[in-house]
Amino acid sequence: MAARTSSSNARARGSLALGVLAVVSLPATIAFAQRSPALTVLQAVYLFPVPILLGLFAIQQARRARERVERTLGRAGGLRQARWGRRLGFLGIAIGITAGLALAFSALLAHYSA
After folding, report:
1. What is the average pLDDT across 74-79?
2. Which range of residues forms the domain containing residue 27?
3. Could you tell me the pLDDT band of residue 42, with boundaries at 50, 70 and 90?
4. What does the DSSP assignment read for 32-91?
5. Domain count of the chain?
């Protein structure tokens, strides 16, 4: 059986797209904040739930994409995209948690330094 080059599994593509957005959302916001006088870096870090939510949605879509691949006995394709979407979703969650922890420690330092 020849390898399939394109996927008919839209959830796999969606998982990959959500995973990429999860990984890129917070760093892009922080980069924008460094160049913009309207937004500070500390305000940008307050958006730490965004990559967490996008990562959770990416993992959910990857799970559904894998179920479709199993249900169609592999004919739907998109298994590799679903795997990458899941991995990037977990990475996005890790980025969001790290930003949240940084924000919490910054608040603690500001509170106890005064």
Report:
1. 88
2. 10-113
3. confident
4. HHHH-TTS-HHHHHTTTHHHHHHHHHHHHHHHHHHHHHHHTTTTT--HHHHHHHHHHHHH
5. 1
